[in-house]
Amino acid sequence: MDSNESMAAQNLTQPNDDCTSELPTVQEYLDGLNYPIALIIAATVLLSIATFSIFFKNAYHILHRTPKQFKTKSILLLTIYPLVTLFGVVSISVPRAFFLCDTVMHVFFMICAYVFFSLCMQYVDGEDALIKSTDSQTFSLRTPPLCCFVPLFKRAPVTKNRLRFVRMLIMQLPVVQTALFLALNVVFVEDYPNFNRIILYFVPFIVISILLGVWGLNVLVRMLAPLYSDLKLMGKYFVLQAVLILCRIQPLIIAAIVSSTISDCAFPITLQVQKNAIFQLCLCFEMMVLSCWASLLYKSPSVIGQG
């Protein structure tokens, strides 16, 4: 009798003592939904609606005032902010879809990185026009994040091969990152209990690919920004790069804070669900702010030329 009572007491206290890694189904999630999580869901929905409103206003402005050759790529780059908020809402509402939503946001950013390169080339009338207009030493590989590894490289003239090298650095982002995250999604579906262990083997390849891509973008922007100051390339690059920083680094910070401050992780509102909810709330607010900032930057250029 005492043994049975002990086992019963252990079963009752186990959900609070041990944080399970299992993710609830939608029905389990809705049945156990508490007030704070419901409030977060409502807030992210409102932030998403606000971000979509800003996007449509920006798109209307671009369609009516931006030169024709820049319209499609500019709108595509601005799409990243409402898309992130939309999948943020889905990620909170459907806990088991959080990694799929994260994959879509991540891959879309990588596509936008190459779109940004293409837009920059359109701004300067193509690679040939850029080479002709830059007869000074404007090309430099000594830029973050890999500047410490290439200290011997000096500034050099812009050439076709050097631009091709930068293009390949950026082009590998959507290709490599898509392949890696598709493989991780297979692991997530087939072997979720070991997912956090298996993902560690992918991290080096993900990080190296991102570092190379960001390096290429930095080389590009630092080469063009001083020559075409009216295009506000540094600002446009920052509001794009901020998405990557917020989506990749911020979760680690929030996870550490939540893990150290929240002790109640009873199923279905597990610790993973709480971390994801707080992260998506912060991310949705930040995307709204970045969307407002981007709307100011993409009002230019009305006139193209060297600064």
UniProtKB/TrEMBL annotation:
Which is one Gene Ontology cellular component term of this protein? membrane
Region: Disordered; residue ranges are 1-20
Q: Does the keyword Membrane apply?
A: yes
Question: Where is this protein localized, as stated in its record?
Answer: Membrane
This protein's superkingdom? Answer: Eukaryota
Q: Which Pfam families match?
A: Solute_trans_a
Q: Where are the transmembrane segments?
A: 33-55, 75-98, 104-124, 165-186, 198-225, 237-258, 278-298
Membrane topology type, per the record? Multi-pass membrane protein
Q: What is its main location?
A: membrane
What InterPro entries has UniProt attached to this entry? Ostalpha/TMEM184C (IPR005178)
Q: Has the keyword Membrane been applied to this entry?
A: yes
- Which keywords appear in this protein's UniProt record, sorted alphabetically? Membrane, Transmembrane, Transmembrane helix
Designated name of the protein: Organic solute transporter alpha-like protein
